[in-house]
Amino acid sequence: MKIHSVNGGNGLRLHVREWGKVDAPAILFIHGWSQNHLCWLKQYESELASSFHLVAFDLRGHGMSEAPEASEHYTQSQAWADDIAAIIEQLGLTHPVLVGWSYGGFVICDYIRAYGQDAIAGINFVGAAVTLDRAAFGVLIGPGFLDHVPGAIADDLPANIQAIRAFVHGCTARPLRRDECEIALSWNMVVPPKVRAALVTRVIDSDDVLSSLERPVLMTQGLSDKVIFPAMGDHILKTCRTANASWYPETGHAPFLEDTPRFNRELADFVRKARQL
């Protein structure tokens, strides 16, 4: 494992880690709201590392990346796009597959809108959000997220703890192991409430990006997801002509944690096929 510090959009410092073979097909993992790179542990500590070049990072404001509190660092599409471009360039990633979980779907679309798709091989949307507005609330975005936002963005630590505990427990259809849950709670809590708040003030419509995609897309979605409803996955399929679906029964918002063997196998197959196109 190697650790890098990458200057992303507006010079903001990003914490980046890589595993595996640097000359192998690259996979860039992009986590979601209030998470960090540790959520991908079951991928980078798996057999995937023996066949691929795995890269994960902490989004701006998350984990060990720089986290200024001013909202303008999180509300501009271009800054998110520049973060991805900077990582691809500095680590020399050749046509990586982008894997975006939850809010990571927005970040991928930010990147494609600004930089196009020539530099990537494909996209795996994982319980990914691509639309953020009031019309999506309760239709595409569920109570597993919406019910916990007020407490998670409050300037009150007890409210933060209560909200984040409920959010983490609601991300999976079945409870995580105690140690997994404790680690997840820890990485969620280190994100400042003002950062969480800034991320959800954006109004996002990614249909322009989805409809323009020519690279292959795998849409991975838990059928029991209460954070991002399966309807969001349906929307991706209807809007993106290159998308294929992988539905996970009895699975919540984190297929890569809840059914790791299947997720890793399907991701490996998708990357190999995408690189052959």
Automatic annotation (TrEMBL):
Q: What is this protein called?
A: Alpha/beta hydrolase
Residue runs in coiled coils? none
Matching entries from SUPFAM superfamilies are given as:
alpha/beta-Hydrolases
Highest lineage ranks of the organism? Bacteria, Pseudomonadati, Pseudomonadota, Alphaproteobacteria, Hyphomicrobiales
AB hydrolase-1 domain: residues covered: 27-262
Q: Does the keyword Isomerase apply?
A: no
Matching entries from InterPro entries are given as: AB_hydrolase_1, AB_hydrolase_fold, AB_hydrolase_sf
Molecular function (GO) terms for this protein are: hydrolase activity
Keywords recorded for this protein, A-Z:
Hydrolase
